[in-house]
């Protein structure tokens, strides 16, 4: 309406709009109705400024408290490091080297959680005006929607009314709770195959859109109404109901189950016999001839094949009865809203305070707090932060302490850093090899490679000379003994033997 006094005056009047705009709920005007005074814009701005100032004060106190705790922890760490002595200093030195080189994944930080959430909360508030993004023709429908999430629910409900029919008022489709969901890929593929265009449009929307296939609502209500458009197939009945032991065949006990499911109740004996005869494959006779001394022995054996899925498909009466009578098991259980906690966090400080206090008083298995603040308030953020600290006061073993943070915020950054390190290592190796090749003579002289080679050659020649000298000495020792043996005189006994031999 702008600032026109004439138009602003109409806000306090009771106007019957039943004849003016079709589709708007009419307002009954009473003659003695007292108009509600509208607060001035200045009072609203002052209240908002006070709320912002109070929130910043609380956030500043929390930040100072966290920083004091951090200083105490750092002091304790320094004392522990001093008690460790030289080993602790070396460990701390190597950690700093790894961090400087870029090999470590964890680095020191000067920020705390309060610094990240409430930047410069102890200083004066900034007076920057928020610039709203321009509205384009393509996004006009989404911008004009006051509740895109609710509009998407209504959109899916219309689609499901066309496919499954409109439910009764008592069985109207409700919104699933904000909690973790277990999903089945085959069910998701069925939804994509049935509503292909809607799913593709949802994937193309960057942000929420009034014509989104809202995921959890679509999944669970499709699961409830799936039998209406996707009846049981014989393969599903075989897998889920008949083949209990998963061996691919039906034994006698499983044939009784098939007869009960086909009949829909306790089957009489003739129905069981009819089902057994229908699904039972034809018997085969195997004949073997064995030659013996007395003649040829002829052996015949009757084989009864197993009952498989193919045999069941060849029996139309049992097949159609199974598809007709087998009912879906209930896979969804409707639970009351008291099992979960869900809050739409708004700008109203008092209302948000009551919500957080109620969450502290009533603990549930799942807690979901949706940020619905149009203009984020540090006061509301502070009480939310305090609630989370009341539920989880200490960090888990998988979280880093307050004075450390992960160097990489995403796996792509880590992979890019790994590639840079590998490239740098390869360049360093190539440079070292080039230096070694260019200055190979200087390196040999520097490290004494030639002296070592000469020493090895001299030691080898000395060993050869020593070995040759030892051989000569052994030969010299053997030659005098041979000469003495040749000059020894013959004895008389030898002379006699010589004479006898000559005679």
UniProtKB/TrEMBL annotation:
Biased amino acid composition, Basic residues: 493-503
Residue stretches making up the Stealth protein CR4 conserved region domain: 358-410
UniProt keywords, alphabetically: Coiled coil, Membrane, Transferase, Transmembrane, Transmembrane helix
Protein name: EF-hand domain-containing protein
Keyword hit for Transmembrane: yes
Domain Stealth protein CR3 conserved region: 177-224
Residue ranges, annotated region (Disordered): 37-56, 463-503
GO CC term, one of those recorded: Golgi apparatus
Keyword Transmembrane: yes
Coiled coil start-end: 57-84
Any one GO MF annotation of this record: transferase activity
InterPro entries, per the entry: EF_Hand_1_Ca_BS, Stealth, Stealth_CR3, Stealth_CR4
Organism this protein belongs to: Phytophthora fragariae
Biased composition (Basic and acidic residues): 40-56
Transmembrane residue ranges: 423-441
């Amino acid at each position: 309406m702008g600032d026109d006094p004439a138009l602003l005056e109409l806000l306090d009047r009771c106007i019957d709009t039943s004849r003016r705009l079709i589709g708007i709920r009419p307002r009954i005007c009473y003659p003695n109705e007292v108009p509600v005074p509208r607060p001035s814009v200045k009072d609203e701005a002052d209240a908002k400024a006070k709320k912002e100032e109070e929130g910043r004060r609380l956030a500043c106190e929390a930040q100072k408290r966290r920083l004091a705790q951090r200083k105490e922890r750092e002091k304790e760490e320094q004392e522990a490091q001093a008690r460790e002595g030289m080993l602790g200093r070396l460990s701390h030195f190597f950690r700093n080297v790894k961090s400087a080189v870029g090999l470590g994944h964890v680095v020191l930080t000067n920020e705390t959680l309060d610094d990240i959430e409430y930047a410069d909360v102890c200083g004066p508030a900034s007076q920057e005006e928020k610039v709203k993004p321009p509205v384009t023709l393509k996004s006009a429908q989404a911008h004009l929607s006051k509740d895109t999430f609710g509009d998407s629910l209504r959109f899916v409900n219309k689609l499901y009314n066309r496919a499954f029919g409109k439910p009764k008022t008592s069985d109207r489709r409700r919104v699933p709770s904000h909690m973790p969901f277990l999903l089945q890929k085959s069910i998701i593929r069925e939804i994509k195959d049935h509503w292909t265009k809607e799913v593709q449009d949802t994937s193309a929307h960057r942000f929420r859109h009034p014509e989104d296939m809202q995921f959890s609502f679509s999944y669970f209500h499709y699961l409830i109404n799936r039998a209406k458009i996707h009846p049981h197939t014989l393969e599903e009945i075989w897998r889920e109901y008949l083949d209990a032991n998963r061996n691919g065949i039906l034994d006698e006990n499983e044939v009784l189950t098939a007869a009960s499911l086909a009949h829909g109740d306790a089957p009489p004996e003739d129905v069981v016999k009819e089902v057994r005869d229908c699904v039972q494959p034809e018997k085969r006779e195997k004949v073997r001839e064995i030659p013996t001394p007395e003649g040829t022995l002829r052996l015949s054996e009757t084989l009864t094949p197993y009952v498989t899925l193919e045999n069941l498909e060849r029996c139309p009466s049992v097949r159609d009865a199974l598809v007709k009578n087998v009912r879906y098991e209930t896979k969804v259980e409707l639970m009351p809203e008291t099992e979960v906690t869900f809050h739409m966090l708004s700008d109203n400080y008092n209302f948000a305070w009551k919500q957080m206090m109620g969450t502290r008083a009533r603990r549930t298995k799942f807690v979901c707090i949706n940020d619905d603040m149009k203009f984020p308030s540090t006061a509301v953020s502070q009480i939310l932060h305090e609630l989370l600290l009341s539920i989880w006061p200490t960090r888990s073993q998988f979280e880093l302490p307050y004075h450390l943070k992960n160097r990489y915020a995403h796996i792509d950054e880590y992979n890019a850093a790994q590639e840079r390190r590998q490239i740098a290592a390869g360049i360093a190796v190539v440079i070292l090899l080039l230096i070694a090749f260019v200055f190979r003579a200087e390196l040999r002289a520097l490290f004494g490679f030639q002296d070592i080679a000469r020493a090895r050659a001299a030691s080898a020649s000395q060993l050869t000379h020593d070995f040759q000298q030892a051989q000569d000495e052994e030969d010299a020792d053997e030659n005098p003994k041979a000469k003495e043996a040749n000059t020894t005189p013959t004895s008389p006994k030898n002379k006699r033997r010589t004479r006898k031999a000559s005679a």
